[in-house]
Amino acid sequence: MTNGSEKITRALSRKLVAATTDEALVQVSVFVAIDHESLPLSSFAARAAAKNAVIMNGVREVMTHVQKWEATHGRTIALAVMADEGSVNMGAPRSLIDSLAATDAVAVLDVPETKPAPRTPSTPLRLGARR
């Protein structure tokens, strides 16, 4: 097991440096480690099922790690599991982020992707109308 600093992206490092205190919550995406070489090549379905099992086991390990951290520190962490992406999004203090980075179940920690708000036209379009 390593100290995990190589698993923290530059973008997340900048967020951690900008945090006012070590206890300030920083939004983070924790991506589960997947060894693609160990997945079966027999069929697409078998490979997908094996990948899903690896993701679920990794998410379970991350959740267990967070629960242990919560019990030790007397705090709770709100999180969202993004199973299709193999990630867990949460607001976490630096100590939890560093602790997660040191676990083998985690591949990388990054800032969550922010999706732009859906674009709405300034004037509604009417079907069949001529311009």
Strand order of the largest sheet: 2-3-1-4
Provide the β-strand percentage band.
15-25%
Largest sheet: 4 strands, antiparallel
> Distance between termini?
64 Å
Query: SSE string, helix = H, strand = E?
Result: HEHEEHE
Q: Globular, elongated, flat, extended or rod-shaped: what is the shape?
A: elongated
Count the strands? 4
Radius of gyration: 19 Å
Count of the domains? 1
Number of helices: 3
Low-confidence segments, given as residue ranges, are none
Structural class by helix and strand composition: alpha+beta
Name the helicity range. 25-40%
Mean pLDDT: 84
Molecular structure report:
By secondary structure, the chain is α+β, with helices and mostly antiparallel strands. It has one domain. Strands 2-3-1-4 form a four-stranded antiparallel sheet. It is elongated. The mean pLDDT is 84.
Which key phrases capture this entry?
131 residues, alpha+beta, four-stranded antiparallel beta sheet, 3 helices, 4 strands, 36% helix
In short:
With 131 residues, the chain is of the alpha+beta class. 36% of the residues lie in helices and 17% in strands. The radius of gyration is 19 Å and the shape is elongated.
